[in-house]
Every structure is written in C-alpha cells, then in structure tokens.
Amino acid sequence: DLCKSINGLDKVLLRESRGSSAEVYLYGGHVTSWKSDHGEELLFLSSKAIFKPPKAIRGGIPICFPQFGGLGTLDQHGFARNRFWNIDDDPPPFPTNTLSKAFVDLILKPSEEDMKSWPHSFEYRLRIALGPGGDLMLTSRIRNTNSDGKPFSFTFAYHTYFSVSDISEVRVEGLETLDYLDNLQNKERFTEQGDALTFESEVDKIYLSTPTKIAIIDHEKKRTFVVRKDGLPDAVVWNPWDKKAKAMADFGDDEYKHMLCVEAAAIEKPITLKPGEEWKGRLELSAVPSSYCSGQ
Ligand code: TA6
C-alpha cells in the first residue's frame, strides 16, 4: 500500500502473507524497514535520521548510484538516494522474483539537473520484494538509454545497515583471507586475516572479489543474516565507532553499537554499459537462527 508517512514523504508498505513486512520510501527508493514474520525489525534506522531532502535517510538500505563513495565528481554516494523515484507501472518482466506476491517496482530517470553533473541518460528500475520465507530481495536493472551512442560507467552499492544487538558480539564469515582496500588507510590494499571478522573499533573496508554469500552472525540474538548477491563482486564493511558516530548529526552517539553495514557493491571495477545494454544487480537478505548457519 502507498501511504503518506508522518514526515510527509510517500512510502510503500509491503506485507507478506506470513507476516513479514518492509517499508520503502519513494524518496531515494529507500528501504527503511524489513521485519521478520514475528514483527522484529532487522534493519538499523537511526533514531536521528533526517527525513528531509536532499539529506539521505540514515539507515535501512541507501542506494549508492551512479557513484560509490567520493570516488568521482558527484556528491558522496551519487544522487539516486537523494531523488524522488516513481512507482513503475510498466515494468519489464522480472523472472527472478516470480515467487514473491509482495513487491513494488520503482523507476528513476535522470533530471535535467542530474544530466549536468552526470551527462548520461538511463532507466533504473528497482524491484523490492518479500519472498515466501520473509527474505528481502532487491533487484536493480540499469539500462543505458543514451541516444548519442555513448557508453557510461558507474559504481554501485546497496548500502545496507543491519540491526545487531551488540557490535562487539558480531562475527562476519565469508570475507576472511580476501584482499580489501582500507578507507582508513588511504584505500591501501591489504589481505584479511584467516578467520571470521570481529569488531572492536572503526572499520571501513572494501573487500574485493567476494563470494556470493556472506554471513553476519549476531551472537546474542542467536541470529544470522545471510547476504546473497549477484552482479556485485565487492562488499563494504563499515562501522563508524564512537568518534565518527558523535560527529554525525543524524546518528545517535551510541548507535554504532547496534548496527553494522555490509554492502553488496561493484566498486573496484566500474560497470560499463553501451547504449541499450542493461546491468542487473541482485541482493537477497535472509535472517535465520544461527544454529543452522555456521559453515552452511
Ligand atoms: O560505506 C562506507 C562509507 O563509504 C563510509 O566511508 C561512510 O562515509 C559511509 O559510507 C556513510 O556515508 P554517508 O554519505 O551515508 O554518510
């Protein structure tokens, strides 16, 4: 259902038959809530999030397009998360999500303004769907619609903020032994040590050529988030920790203890599309009891 939220921005509520739900703001095409079938919130949304354009909403799943980070000429993380998307009432067939009954299709095209800072025309169709087991699936289809024959390249991330009970009790499996660029050390390249990641200070790493599946284990909740991705070879892991948290007006001082960003991304090798070509980037999130998960 489409409704007006308390802060005046339109949002879509998705409800799956067994009780799981999600909320998506047309502003930013931004998922701000994903709840399990017993109503537990699985994404982090800052209590100080600002729902006022052009500020991006702090938390949920910001869409970083056409640029991840500050790696180019646009504002940090591009402009898709700062624009009003439209409901797409004429979507192309999305064979991958045929199972879902609860979904919404959104579309973003560049404004005149956008074309000044990023002189390319594109159609970005985003489907947000809840699967039968309460999984959250995001499918992005980005097509180059340039009429001047020009290709374009972009970097991308689903900047997902997971809700965790206590960051010092969280482990991430699937990124050990991989190379990463450390944003805290001039993006220098390092190799990760050999066992699951744990967290005791600020982290901001871009892991390269990562597996299609990453597990985020919340010890206290006995819950594991499973991130499955397709078309997204990299993964960013970010927690601002205390100092950076205090420096962000839209982030509570202690909130870093209850969140971890693990972001399915395409950063190291920008994606290049010729006119008419389309790129697809899929993200599938599930939350499972931890006892089933380690080593799966
Ligand atoms: O994804 C990690 C990161 O690039 C960090 O460097 C930090 O800047 C974070 O994104 C949040 O960026 P934002 O523009 O949303 O404040």
Give your account of this protein's structure.
Helix content is 4%, strand content 42%. It has helices at 112-117, 241-247, and strands at 2-4, 10-15, 21-25, 30-35, 63-64, 86-87, 102-108, 122-130, 136-144, 152-158, 161-163, 170-173, 179-182, 188-191, 203-207, 213-218, 223-230, 234-239, 259-273, 278-289. The radius of gyration is 18 Å and the shape is globular. The two termini are 36 Å apart. It has 296 residues and is mainly beta. The protein has one domain (2-293): Distorted Sandwich (Beta-galactosidase, Chain A, domain 5), CATH 2.70.98.10. The protein contains 2 helices and 20 strands. The mean pLDDT is 94. The strands form 3 sheets. Strands 5, 10, 11, 13, 14, 15, 18 and 19 form an 8-stranded antiparallel beta sheet that branches. Belongs to the glucose-6-phosphate 1-epimerase family. Keywords: Isomerase. Its EC number is 5.1.3.15. The active site is at 159, 263.
